[in-house]
Design brief:
three-stranded antiparallel sheet, 285 residues, Rossmann fold, binds zinc ion
Amino acid sequence: MSETIWCCPVCGRKLHPADRSLKCEKGHSFDRSRKGDVHLLPSNKMHAKLPGDNPEMVRARRAFLSKGYYAHLLATISQTVCERLPEGGTLLDAGCGEGYYTAGVLHFLDSTGKTAQCYGVDISKTAAGYAAKADSRLDCAVASVFHLPVERASCDMLLSIFSPYCGEEFRRVLRPDGWLIMAIPAARHLWELKAAVYDTPYENAVREYALEGFTFEQSYTVSREIVLDDPQDIAALFAMTPYAYRTGAAERERLAALRTLRTEAAFEVLVYRNTLNKKENSHGI
Ligand SMILES: [Zn+2]
């Protein structure tokens, strides 16, 4: 069993593989589940019995993504990773969900002959379990992206795909010149869906590219029209959006009445490089 990037969520020391568990030198031990993921979320950081997306939500998203509606985004992310990740490099998907993008990237790397050590973290146990099953080479942990149980400066690249951003923590686990690849919805993402449901649809607010501590390198716009003719897919897509939580009864009725939907699926893939300087590094950040 080879070493990993995982650290003990109790004492912070490096975890070493031992049979189906990971153990630190203080004797804290974490078993892998039958699916292969390891639970590294300390109970005092669990603010709910089942934190993160609930199992129903995870399964709906998994079914939606498996139909390839966002394949154009996966293709751009894969290409972006492949061009920059060093051979044999370490990639961590911070907020990997059910592993659609993480496993997809790994398969793309296979097709180019490139190898990588791939890790994923998600706070939802259901999601991390699916991610671990998506590819046996993918090492997944249940954990928060705000407290990554990951060694300092151990990653060549982080992926953050529609996932919460935690700059300080991302910079800690990245190597000094490591890469951060982010995907965010573009202004017109799902415009036609919003126009069908809301009286006054708004474009998504697209934030400034600048991120403290990172050098912005490049952005790619990825867009295509997707056609959904299954009401279940339409419902799953809507539930994946952040505005699903603030939608009233009238809008929900309009959504439920949609039999088919033709809408733009538009994203931005942003490329950053860690600009951690040597002085900060020597202070052990
Ligand atoms: Zn420990």
